[in-house]
């Protein structure tokens, strides 16, 4: 097993066979991110992505008050430094690289080969929407308070919300409203608009529900589940014809694996299928 004990800002546990539970672990700061955290986050999910012992992942925030309150604006490393000796073009190039580093780290959940279920509770502002928008499935406790907060600090959300949220929910007008106003909205509204897949009473119940789903996913063929995630994510930004072509190429390899035969035989014999690691 890969050792996941060395991470300072995240704890990793294994509640079920082939299921990892990642907790953002900075509750004293309401799980607000600084630069060290987002770099660690990217490293962690890149490792989970290729760990053959992991087939599904639950992501949550530690402590009772917040999933993630956004950026830690009191940290010295979340904003670039002013330097009057650097011209605007060079400064802009530096800032672009800085933003790309942040975007790439948070995007590792979306690019992760394994399905990721995000559990939201309490405060979930700004960066929390970026993070959860990358996940495959979102489950929340009914106490969750969500907001696309960036206009309140004078910027447009730049880590993925404005690119991903319109593709997740059904109403572009709703996305624009919450993004332009930074207003707080709750679990029922987020469920109604399609951002959340389920709302339950408590954080603990949400984690239990997410773990149950992750366990079910982990029992399936990893070739099938991971292939499905890759094809869906590809198809979101491509035409139907391009998606079909990608699927054809992907499954031309996948159908040669023993997994389809194992699954069919298990179904016919009414027994549990057991698949090799991937």
Automatic annotation (TrEMBL):
Q: Keywords on this record?
A: Acetylation, Fatty acid metabolism, Isomerase, Lipid metabolism, Peroxisome
Q: Which GO terms describe its molecular function?
A: delta(3,5)-delta(2,4)-dienoyl-CoA isomerase activity
Keyword Acetylation on entry: yes
Point out the signal peptide segment: none
**Major place of residence:** other
The pathway entry for this protein reads as: Lipid metabolism; fatty acid beta-oxidation
Q: Which GO terms describe its biological process?
A: fatty acid beta-oxidation
Entry's InterPro entries?
A: ClpP/crotonase-like_dom_sf, Ech1-like, Enoyl-CoA_hydra/iso, Enoyl-CoA_hydra_C
Annotated compartments: Peroxisome
**Entry's Gene Ontology cellular component terms:** mitochondrion; peroxisome
Instruction: Give the record's family classification.
Output: Belongs to the enoyl-CoA hydratase/isomerase family.
The protein in question is named Similar to Delta(3,5)-Delta(2,4)-dienoyl-CoA isomerase, mitochondrial acc. no. Q62651
């Amino acid at each position: 097993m890969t050792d996941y004990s060395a991470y300072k800002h995240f704890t990793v546990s294994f509640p079920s066979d082939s299921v990892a539970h990642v907790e953002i672990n900075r509750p004293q700061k309401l799980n607000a991110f600084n630069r060290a955290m987002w770099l660690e986050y990217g490293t962690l999910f890149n490792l989970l992505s290729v760990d053959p012992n992991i087939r599904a992942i639950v992501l949550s925030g530690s402590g009772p008050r917040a999933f993630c309150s956004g950026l830690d604006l009191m940290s010295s490393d979340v904003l670039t430094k002013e330097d009057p000796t650097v011209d605007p073009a060079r400064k802009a190039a530096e800032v672009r690289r800085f933003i790309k580093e942040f975007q790439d780290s948070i995007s590792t959940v979306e690019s992760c080969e394994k399905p990721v279920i995000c559990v939201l509770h309490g405060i979930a502002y700004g960066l929390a929407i970026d993070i959860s928008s990358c996940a495959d499935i979102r489950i929340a406790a009914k106490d969750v308070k969500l907001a696309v907060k960036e206009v309140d600090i004078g910027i447009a959300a730049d880590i993925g919300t404005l690119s991903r949220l319109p593709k997740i929910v059904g109403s572009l007008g709703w996305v624009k409203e919450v993004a332009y106003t930074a207003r707080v909205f709750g679990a029922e509204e987020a469920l109604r608009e399609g951002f959340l897949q389920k709302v339950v009473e408590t954080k603990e119940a949400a984690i239990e529900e997410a773990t149950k789903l992750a366990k079910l996913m982990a029992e399936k063929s990893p070739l099938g589940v991971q292939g499905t995630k890759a094809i869906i994510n590809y198809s979101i930004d491509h035409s139907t014809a391009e998606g079909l072509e990608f699927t054809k190429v992907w499954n031309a390899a996948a159908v040669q694996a023993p997994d389809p035969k194992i699954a069919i035989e298990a179904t016919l014999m009414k027994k549990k299928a057991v698949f090799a690691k991937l």
